[in-house]
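Why do we bother with holo predictions? Because pocket geometry can differ from the apo form. Keep that in mind while you read this record for iron/sulfur cluster.
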Amino acid sequence: MSIRIYVPSDTTARALGADRIAAALPKLAAEQGVELEIRRNGTRGLYWLEPLLEVETESGRYGFGPVKLRDLDSLLAAKFWLGEGVEHPLALGLVEEIPYLKKQQRLTFARLGITDPLSLDDYQAHNGFKGLRNALALSGQAIVDAVKESGLRGRGGAAFPTGIKWQTVADAPAAQKYIVCNADEGDSGTFADRLVMECDPFMLIEGMTIAGLAVGATQGYIYCRSEYPLAVKNLNAAIETAVANQLLGEDILGSGRSFQLEVRMGAGAYICGEETSLLESLEGKRGLVRAKPPLPALVGLFGQPTVVNNVLSLAAVPFILDQGAQAYADCGMGRSRGTLPFQLAGNVKQGGLVELAFGPSLRELMFDFGGGTFNRRPLRAVQVGGPLGAYLPESQWDTPLDYEEFAKVGAVLGHGGVVMFDDSVDMSEQARFSMEFCVAESCGKCTPCRIGSTRGVEVIDRIRAGQNVDNNLALLADLCDTMLVGSLCAMGGMTPIPVQSAVKHFAEDFRTNAVEEA
Amino acid sequence: MVTPESAGWEPSVAQAIIDEYKSKPGALLPILHALQDRFDWIPDGVIPMIAQALQVTRAEVHGVVSFYHHFRTHEPGRHVVEVCRAEACQARGARALEAHAKASLGVDYHQTTADNNITLEPVYCLGNCACGPSVRVGDEIHANVDAAEFDALVDALRTERVEVLG
Ligand SMILES: Cc1cc2nc3c(=O)[nH]c(=O)nc-3n(C[C@H](O)[C@H](O)[C@H](O)COP(=O)(O)O)c2cc1C
Ligand code: SF4
Ligand code: FES
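The structure, written out:
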């Protein structure tokens, strides 16, 4: 009997050498007369342990990591394939007992790293397509009601209630409606959408199909950023399998209902994550932001009623339809129901995916899970919610992870990205980058955003050079106000958030070169 | 990667690609992606062909090509190396890496080395944010890239070129 070893296959595991290990390990083992069957799982999302090998045993999966090619000899010498009780510096014991994983509430990511991403059997053996089967027996309205009751709010950033959006589309009369999945995931520090698409693509297919049944849409598009080639590949493969098994396409599971799904690739424009810009892009145009109203729910793709949802919003739906709206709503605090898959990134010791019910503090996330900084220098600033999110100083780290609590301190949770910086960070440089990013990524439609960000870079350069610091800081504040009120979308409207938070909480970094003004 | 044989672009191949995608709703981006996958860039000459196939003006096609960072209007070197400039990578040393990349290659972003081997491009996040600095070459992503790792990567690409040329 051969022994089954799991070797992760997501982008980060590969970037850390997982493919080379998957190729070398069975050969080296065979030389010693040991037959190993290599299976490729996704990843557990415990990135500091990648590549994380797992040995399947009767008592569970035993982990070894982070494994480098040069470790394979000693792993084999220690007979790592026995799993239990193996003595080796990289031995981690039972993977599911690792506190980082055990302390999470993985509702959406229940299968992450357990299954082979492209195995339909694996997916169905772990509750896959149960939500869809339930949904096929329900009316569209009953599905919408379940999503409303779950309290799910959009995970793309704005946290708008998903059920209410679906209701609007369901109620709009039209011959053709669309489900559009926003998989542009442009925020630095985020990779949860990528994990869904690379490691559990059937879940997104299932969620979108349920959305189609709910609102009466028969065509879906996944707009995936071009920076994610593996996600595109896995999605296309999973779609093909789902269609071949009548779980997608015509006459789904003999129900007479149909839903077609196609993956489209973005082209390196951050603004195309903004939903109306995304729709323009899908229509084959420049990604210029549209004025709202009309809402995309009423006048969306090709002028038709359209649900635009983030990957994580749609990926939460199969759980809700399988385990019930209440099971989802039971997690969380206040008006933030369910879980948010946080992503620990930047200068963090234990980076990775941390799916948690809303409520714990940012500090708990960064220290209990993240373990502090990667290089052991003191943590100084944290940007939460992507490039348009605030930088939080230590005085704000006890803020609970909750949409409303974050809003109270002028911050956002956004898509759940947490980027940690040590004390070597120069916050005036970070503020400059926020403006520079806006210059590079503005769609150009409105002046405060397009010109304001260019001026912003210039003003911050003068401040950094120590020129008229007080006057220039006042000018920067005015500029931020103008962008805030005068921008059509949150690109220009929220760029001031990281800038202003840097100025407010890290004022000393803006005066490094200041000469005392008389 | 562009081998010497495919370095040019053949109008008949471009036309076949355009014809394959032109009846999709919102066909322009899929067409541009397919063309760039094939030729490594969007040659000027394809613009009127696309405009005609989609019944739009050349200016509209051109506007779309220039709007998106991903589409290249100049032929790149044999390899495109993308360095992540975004915040999570900055927090792990991406600023130093980007300075090293430019200095060691002797180019700025969007430029190609004198031996036509490497085109350097910025990218804003590759989704590898827990293990940066991140670099993309082709469809491969590299994690924890410091200056030494970058040099090793570039050396490997240069050697590969010698192999290709036989
Ligand atoms: C500049 C900008 C970039 C955005 N980028 C993304 C993105 O990459 N992914 C995403 O899901 N939403 C993004 N959004 C939010 C979308 O506009 C929209 O709110 C979201 O797709 C709605 O889905 P949800 O309700 O499921 O969150 C962005 C918004 C702005 C203003
Ligand atoms: S705020 Fe910026 S990105 Fe948004 S519509 Fe205006 S110019 Fe475009
Ligand atoms: S910020 Fe560099 S990979 Fe995400």
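Chain B has two domains: 11-67, 79-165.
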